[in-house]
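Annotated sample (chain length 110).
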Amino acid sequence: MQLSLPPKVTDRAFAQIAAINSSADEDKCLRVAVEGGGCSGFQYDIKLDDPADEDLILERDGVKVLIDPVSLPFLTDSVIDYSRELIGARFVIENPNATSSCGCGTSFSM
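Output written by the structure step:
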């Protein structure tokens, strides 16, 4: 029986959330959710939000990443990172559960 682990958040991702909060009026958390849709069946919804009672909260130095209980099984053993490339900067999910993904990087299938 394989142990399912919650997602990991990289130092880069935590640093970017902290940077976003440093220029905002109030601190927000980064919510990572999985929804049906997209070109591959599922898509990530990544946004700033406030925590809900049932959320899993991944926290470092007061910076928080939120995952709702419906999305959590889809994100088991994933890595939440922040990438800065020539085409732009964005939060990215490295998801070992995805069997395929779209070129956009936000849509996947399982």
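Annotation: Residues 12 and 82 are 6 Å apart (CA to CA).
Annotation: The longest helix spans residues 11-22.
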